Amino acid sequence: MAALLESLLSQKVDIIKVVDWLKSAGDEDKLSISELGLTVHKEEFVPFLLNFLREQSSQALTHGPATPAKTPSRPRPAAQTQVFSEKRGCKSASGGSGTRAASRVQLFSPSFVSPGPEGSHCLSGVTAFSSPSSSTTWSPASRPSGSERRGGQRIMLGDYMVSPPDFQHSPSFQSQKSRKKSGGNMSLGGRGRGGHYIDETGGRRSVRGGEGYGRIIEQVSPPSVGQLNFNNLEEFPPVGSSPISPAASKPTRRINPTPVSAERPRSKPKTCFTSTPFSKPSSPLSGVVPLEGSMTGGNSLSLQEERELLKKEKTKRAQQVGSPQPSSLEPCTPTKTVLKTGSNVTPEQQTTCPEPSKVTFSLELDLLVELYSTCISENLVPNIFLELFFVMQLLTSRSPHTHDDEQESLCAAHSHSDILERCYLRLVHNCVYFAVKVLENQFQLVAHLDKCTLRLLGENERVASFSPHLRDLLTQAQDKSTAKLSPSVSTFIHSVPFQPDTDNRSNFSSDKAFHIFKKQRDIFYEVLREWEDFHKEPGWNFDTALGNRIRGMMSQMTSAGNHSHFARLFLKQLIQMCKGPRVNSTSGDAPDADLLGMLGAEGLGRLKRLEERLIQPHGVVGPCSPPSFPGYQEFFRDFLQAASCCQLNQHLQDSLCQQLLQLDEVSILSPPASICERDKEEEEDGDMEQQDEKQRFSSVLLLARLLAKFLGFISFLPYQTSEKPSREIQDTAIALRSKSVPVLDVCAVLRNSIRRRRTILTVPWLVEFLSMLDFIGPRLLCYRTTLGTLLLLYRRLVLDRCEEMCYLNKLLMVSVLGWLFQIPVIPEDIFFTSEFTEVAKVEESDINVAGLVSDK
Amino acid sequence: MPLVFRRCNIKLGLASGAATKTVKQLFLTAVSDLTPSQVALSQLCAEACVDQILFPSSKMRLSRAEYKEIVRWTEKLRPTRRCMKILKDKFPSHSQSTLLSIFSLEYQKWIKRTFSRHHVPDVIESYYQRYLSEAKAQPTAPVLLELANEVDLSPALMARIILDRFLQGQDGGMPSKSVLNSMLKEPSLIPDQILASNVYQCTINDCCYGPLVDCIKHAIGHEHEVLLREKLKEKNLSFLDENHLRTMGYDKTPDIILEVPVAVEGHIVHWIESKASFGDDQSHQTYLNEQFWSYWNRFGPGLVIYWYGFIGELDCQRDRGILLKDCFPTDIVTLCHATQQDRSPESQNKDKE
């Protein structure tokens, strides 16, 4: 693959040929280029390209979380990888057990968290962006269920846009330098981690980012333990251990992650150089190496210093927050900044203003854009939103303070050595150029973002200076955009009404059972209210506070045989409270909040809220957070865990299965056939009937996803392990579990759904169900087959192609599937394999039409 | 003597169907042929019961500070008419029923704290012997009442203790509760004439304990439920009452369930519970645990009316679905005629303090 990219960049191979090959449907997996004697597989080339881009840009992206790269590649020629695999292997074998493993395991946070020695296997890029400490905190709320997840991402993308460094030059903010800084931080690094350590994060980022690619190799040869352990210590020092005891790490969330920063000062000058010697023997695999280099010999001294800095920054911010100054928010918002930046003065020394004229390697960049865009368009990447996130990062990247000239010369000098070693994305100019080009290329996708994000993009200085055309398009798209961030649902709890038909005495076997249930209903709500009042208080623990009461209730229930009654109450209450679009009550986003309006006018209270919103870590971290139980769902999950009552679980399972399958059968009216062509306009203008139908569909979909998640949770609960079991244990478990019937025949459900063209309803809830899998689950035949089928489905859902299915439906499916492939328990290797082509054949025409757009 | 109780029952029966304005009259007729002291007490109670209905302007939603001030005063008082008068004069801006209810609750708390020291065999024995000797000396004097006042015990409870001891002495065994209760209600059944008249004097001079008070309380409670139903009918709101609900097999039943919920002051109301007492911390907490939350758990958010007022600070669960009021709400918004109803509350605002 490296050779292919190399020959492309040196124009020995025609880009059109490669793009055509990428576009060709799955049957032509191999590309043979006879003149060069090359044969390349798609599954190898795509991850290579993705990793290449991330490595390239790792220097420029000094802010925000790293875009995870869950892109293990297929085995490569041994000669190339051997050198690294050793180091990588050991590195991830032990080091991996720290942070990343933890957040992969996050699935059942926090009680399940405790990464294993084998962590490296299960690591994925997903974790890279979730800082160790934050992962413990955000997990419950991090993934709003349903399509809102994407909403969350949008917010985030928008936020990143807010404060590219150049905004800070605006004269109006000069007087508020320090405050401004923190403001900038907030929105830069702020997603979920608090923004203090932008820079620090950057440092870690690059390392972590590299980590992702590094893993590629580690897959190849079994990890050998022992050699470079120092690196690990460095990369995941004290911090790394924090997720293991999640409770403890919570309060210190902001400060802990520092270690990262230790590398930064060195990594800046280093990477390019050190990488060379390392990579020489194996030629093209450069990116992996710099990280190695940068990681060696970090000293705790600098770490300490960084910590002190962070502490200072924290207190500084605390003070600022303490004294609310309405005006202090300005820099965070795009309003004035964006409009005025043109006239800016005193550029900060830290950053460089990207200029189109300073772009280097533009030819090669165009080529990369073309390749990259094709991969995105053709669903060859595991998750298109992840890539979009990466592009946004590039767009808002800040180059290190080195002078342009110096940097250029460095890179130029370097560039002679190897085509792939050139610093295509080292300079901020190049990053922005690349990002803007990709955005242009992917405009159809971008145009589906929400209004706020579109406006932020459209008002972005960099976009304007690099491509006025794109800016105009964005401005136009803004007016048409109907995508909204789902408004938060009121936090008022409703109870399940008493229904004489099901709840009065005649439904119980005895007076005693009736009276016990009367008490149990009251206890259940008492527990719920207590949870609502206290669960956010520090040190509050579900099991300590409520566990005994719940277990007492369960034992009474068992003596009275009331499980079915309670299961019904439990599920009804779950649906009542969690079905709404967004249950994440922590982030009270005003629906489609108009930041401009907010700032222009009044209301200290309003500003305060805004301030809180900007300062507080957001519910969503990074582009794809691991599965979680946001909002009230957390209560129900914890309740089930505390109760650990097998009778109750069985009743719940029965009832969930039944309800899910019923929902899956719900009739869906197809929208008029013509919708695909003129997607947006057409859809929103649908008549009342169609609007109702959409509403109904989205309600069914949300409900099904909720139920499926809980069904998955309960079904795989007995098999959950905090660590990935060893291969032998896995094999035994597979042999054992393959004998019993799974709770839900997912294969049949999916097959049936594809045949009946109802995937738009089935796939999103199946994804929720599968996201709850335990480590062994995906290796069981039925789930493996299902995953394979889903993968094939994903590959066929090319957004650009106008098929029977309308754009938004496809977007929904692509995004939920993309998310599933990024989930920790789903083995990384699943995406870049071709093994499923035989396992499950999906007829192109079978990918259905039915279903209405649900993500409104 | 038994007349009082019978009359009360009559009143009770009548009241269910009667219009509110007649309540006070009913009471007055019910007590018309009683001795002056009986009349005085009954009237006090009747006024307490009725004045809120007739004069809703008095202040009933008290701040905790105001409440504490009243409580501080009640500590010095005993359950006598004179004391009630003192309290009333001290706090003229508060309705009499509120004061009486607060006093009653406080007195009950005090009795609960101190009753154990009277309810010990040798103490009982000493009271009994004192009663016997004094009654023998002055057969017509209210010796038992004076004894109760002297040792700081509720007269009605003193009567119960002495009667209990008396019956034990008569047939040796423990008298059954029902016999004891019926004799307290109907002192003429007591074989000993002198004791009967002493018990009667105790009962009638106690405004916090005893069968007379129980009866009055019950009547007042019922009265307000009737009043509530009438108000609802006036407003054309359809509802199910406790009796309906019980026959349908509900396990917990508030006084009223609205068949179509309404909004009161911006809060949805599915059920209404009427409480003809003052809502203080302790009683409200007990009601929350035993009743209000259970109602919420089954029927969603609802409204509690403490007709004799409550501590304002307790009304803190509005957002969670329990709304407190001291009168029938005036600004009710119904589902169907929201716009029409929106205007009407303003015209009624004068009713609302």
Automatic annotation (TrEMBL), chain A:
Gene Ontology biological process terms in this record: chromatin organization
Biased composition (Low complexity): 127-145, 271-285
GO cellular component: nucleus
Start and end residues of each stretch annotated as Disordered: 60-101, 119-210, 237-285
Protein name as catalogued: Codanin 1
Protein species of origin: Haplochromis burtoni (Burton's mouthbrooder)
